[in-house]
Amino acid sequence: MRKHQELSLEQIIEQVIADQLSSDDFCLYGKEDGELELARLYWVSDYPDVVEDSDVYPTDVAEQDLQLVYYGEQLIDVLAVALEEKPNASPQDLVEALNYYQQHDSFMPFDD
């Protein structure tokens, strides 16, 4: 995943899948927290550094006053599990799985 750019969540999901869910060295940041939306734009950047038990956000994130939305490692895990359970999942299905994980700290079950 290329960092230091703004992409829609749909573009991010497409890129992560194209990378075969392998590169998790990124985080998503946004102007607001809350539920993820397919068309909303998110900033892709580095993980925050931890200094004295506090997160220090990358300079590009801090300058734009953005909030951490999703860790790359978690995003990859959620997408991998969702696609394993439902290989033909739509982009909207994947967004729902990501939102479910954020709310419940567990993977969304897909009913066939």
From TrEMBL:
Domain DUF7716: 9-110
Pfam families, sorted: DUF7716
Domain of life: Bacteria
InterPro entries (UniProt xref): DUF7716
The protein's name: DUF7716 domain-containing protein
UniProt organism field: Streptococcus xiaochunlingii
